[in-house]
# Entry
Amino acid sequence: MKDKSQLRQRILAQRKAISPREWQEKNQQICDRILAFPLFQEATTVLAYFSFRQEPDISYLFTTDKKWGFPVCVETTLVWHFWQPGEPLQRGKYGIKQPLADAPKVQPEAVDLIIVPTVACDSWGYRLGYGLGYYDRLLSSAEWQNIPTLGVVFDFAYLPQLPTEPWDIKLNYVCSELLLKKY
# Structure
């Protein structure tokens, strides 16, 4: 198995090489799968992400009748704030769009689904992120660990097996443009 850092670099390079047209097509296919997913359909409050570095763009979903929460990075923690289309955004410390710091916070008990950005996922439900551990810390904490998670990845980054560490947290579901799988 390759080292996580090398694998991350390879997948990010593949992602960057996707043409704008292919990227849009894959994004729409992913959003269509999520829209048909019963857990998403039943959810009232969904935590999500704003696409960064040509991640799968799920912004089409934001027009649905849901309450949306997005992360703000505070030190080594993700703090979730409500946001709806049309409300202002700012750039966070990594250049990722995020709600304003004074937007209402999302409490874990209000959340029905967490849509998790990934660099890669594997057939066991593990994800490869950017290597800073934000989501592993979040998903391992008592107040968040029982909320269903859906990792989103392009199919070329859905691999048979990723290198894992004891602190890596498995996802409940993974969605690509070609599949939506439960673990």
About this structure: The radius of gyration is 15 Å.
